[in-house]
Automatic annotation (TrEMBL):
Catalytic reaction equation(s): Hydrolysis of the 6-sulfate groups of the N-acetyl-D-galactosamine 6-sulfate units of chondroitin sulfate and of the D-galactose 6-sulfate units of keratan sulfate
InterPro entries named in the record: Alkaline_phosphatase_core_sf, GALNS, Sulfatase, Sulfatase_CS, Sulfatase_N
One matching Pfam family: Sulfatase_C
Subunit text: Homodimer.
Protein's name according to its UniProt entry: N-acetylgalactosamine-6-sulfatase
Length: 478
């Protein structure tokens, strides 16, 4: 989802009454970011509190390329990374992931090996249907084992856009919360639904109900589900004991989503690719109707989650997330930069209201000429470039307060440019000097590692024979 999908953020159709109410009862973050313009790396960052370039969720196959975990990816979340649920366990939390995991699908990367106690959902995107010969259909797991495959056992109708998956994920969430409340055990629920990811889907009750097309129907169903989850917490009497945070893992994908207002969308390090809707909710603790200008990042949910559980972040590694509780509970503003990475390159940095681009790229001319456009209808000369442009000696500088659309770079000769860049350069120098990149996990692909025979396939008669191993460098076009 993108920043511009919510009524609370000004979307004119006002189709997200539940999220808007969540915001009016809690705190809206206007300057909240994901750690990457793409799903897998930002999810790895959320769960580890570390930039993808540190936790290994990036590629060095080419410069500044977005990489994720398709079915043929060999890598995944390294054992050396400490995930939020792994740490929360020490404080007695029971952890469940519902929906898309995306941190690798080979056995060693299974979420139950990385701190989660329960899982309902899938390791990969719901692409398909596939023929189970060249490509297997993606499995859906319950805990350790697969219980079916997308399109076979979990239907998505590509013609009508109908699927019941969000309803299934909602029921899973309500049941888990009830169970935890009954056993009086603290819990962490990572509700990682994916209805707004292509192919976009919604259930029958929502199909055709939005002014914004099928994508809007999917947003409405997510909104409705979040309302039901919050109501459930209230009904069970645990809302004042439960911290809820809503956000997204990348900007809206403009192939399926309506325009969002910011420059470009998913895959880019412009605001549309990484600035996210974000709401914190905790009745009785967070003052209702709050608005925060704190620069936030999904990685902060790691540090904030630990803080809520009374735990310290690990001290043997660099953690990029910060504890947001002082911003949420006391209205403090914590000075910190936001780094915008694409693969192995720091493309931009935000410090206060200034954003400096050290590299610009939307996608290649070759991709663009095939109709792949991450900035549809937008062309800011010298900014949304189709060749990778280096600006490291003289970064392009925008003031996001006056120019949130990144259209009017400040003049290099201005005092404002000189003053802002003095400060930003020091922060970037220090970031670069202390950066120790992790071992890249997203370099090698092999068809043999696809979801041919996930655990549990025998019971269902759904085991497929993998082809011979043939590891190759993954190709990441943008
Ligand atoms: C969704 O669930 C309804 C009610 O059980 C069922 O009639 C419908 O066929 C399901 N749709 C899909 C696409 O699975
Ligand atoms: C964007 O505008 C610039 C300058 O006018 C032009 O050179 C470039 O080809 C345009 N890009 C696209 C994708 O149209």
């Amino acid at each position: 989802m993108g920043w511009g999908d919510l009524g609370a953020f000004g979307e004119p159709s006002k189709e997200t009454p539940n999220l808007d109410q969540m915001a009016s009862e809690g705190m809206l973050f206007l300057d909240f970011y994901t750690a990457n313009p793409l799903c897998s790396p930002s999810r790895a960052a959320l769960l580890t509190g570390r930039l993808p370039v540190r936790n290994g969720f990036y590629t060095t196959n080419a410069h500044a390329r977005n990489a994720y975990t398709p079915q043929d990816i060999v890598g995944g979340i390294p054992d050396s990374e400490l995930l939020l649920p792994e740490l929360l366990k020490k404080a007695g939390y029971v952890n469940k992931i519902i929906g898309k995991w995306h941190l690798g699908h080979r056995p060693q990367f299974h979420p139950l090996k990385h701190g989660f106690d329960e899982w309902f959902g899938s390791p990969n995107c719901h692409f398909g249907p596939f023929d189970n010969r060249a490509l297997p259909n993606i499995p859906v797991y319950r805990d350790w084992e697969m219980i079916g495959r997308y399109y076979e056992d979990f239907k998505i109708d590509l013609k009508t856009g109908e699927s019941n998956l969000t309803q299934i994920y909602l029921q899973e969430a309500l049941d888990f919360i009830s169970k935890q409340q009954a056993s009086r055990q603290p819990f962490f629920l990572y509700w990682a639904i994916d209805a707004t990811h292509a192919p976009v889907y919604a259930s029958e009750r929502f199909l055709g109900t939005s002014q914004r097309g099928l994508y809007g129907d999917a947003v409405r169903e997510i909104d409705d589900s979040i309302g039901k989850i919050l109501n459930h917490l209230q009904k069970l009497g645990i809302s004042e004991n439960t911290f809820v945070f809503f956000t997204s893992d990348n900007g809206a994908a403009l192939i399926s989503a309506p325009k969002q207002g910011f420059l470009c969308g998913k895959q880019t390090t412009f605001e549309g690719g990484m600035r996210e809707p974000a709401i914190a909710w905790w009745p009785g603790h967070i003052p209702a109707g709050g608005v925060s200008h704190q620069l936030g990042n999904v990685m902060d949910l790691f540090s904030t989650g630990l803080s809520l559980a009374g735990l310290q972040p690990p001290s043997d590694r660099q953690i990029d997330g910060i504890d947001l509780l002082p911003a949420i509970l006391q209205g403090k503003l914590i000075d910190r930069p936001i780094f915008y990475y694409r693969g192995n390159e720091m493309m931009a940095v935000r410090v206060g209201l200034y954003k400096a681009h050290y590299w610009t790229w939307s996608n290649s001319w070759e991709e663009y000429s095939k109709g792949i456009d991450f900035c549809p209808g937008q062309n800011v000369s010298g900014v949304t470039t189709h060749t990778q442009e280096e600006h490291t000696t003289l970064p392009l500088l925008f003031h996001l307060g006056r120019d949130p659309g990144e259209k009017y770079p400040l003049s290099f000769a201005s005092d404002e440019y000189q003053g802002a860049m003095e400060r930003i350069s020091l922060i970037v120098q220090q970031h670069r000097a202390t950066m120790v990149p992790g071992e890249p996990q997203l370099n090698v692909c092999d068809r043999a590692v696809m979801n041919w025979s996930p655990p549990g396939c025998e019971k269902l008669g759904k085991c497929l024979t993998p082809p011979k191993s043939d590891p190759k460098k993954c190709f990441w076009p943008h």
